[in-house]
Specification:
Order of helices and strands: EEEEEEEEE
Number of domains: 1
Distance between the termini: 46 Å
Helix content: under 10%
Strand content: over 45%
CATH topology: Immunoglobulin-like
CATH superfamily: Immunoglobulins
CATH architecture: Sandwich
Oligomer: single chain
CATH class: Mainly Beta
Mean pLDDT: 92
Structural class: mainly beta
Radius of gyration: 14 Å
Number of strands: 9
Length: 96
Amino acid sequence: PVSGVSLAAQPPTGQVARGERLVLLCSVAAGPGPLSFSWHRQGSPTPLATGPRYELPAVQQRDGGTYYCRASNGGSAANSASLGVTVLGERDPRAL
């Protein structure tokens, strides 16, 4: 069976300024066979995307929430722990 599904984020805290990029990565410790991945946000009935990587190039306020990934090998599936994504206010252009 699929096990040890983990989610990593860049930035790692899950806090990102509006307009910044957020990258979520899903990995599996164990699981035979070809793996498929799907991305979910709590409260949404349909997957957001598929594949081991999910990227939001310019985060908006509506992108905040709790995310998790699901890995499956056709015979079994497992979810990662959830990650809360917080969208902070507008990036200050003077900080560049």
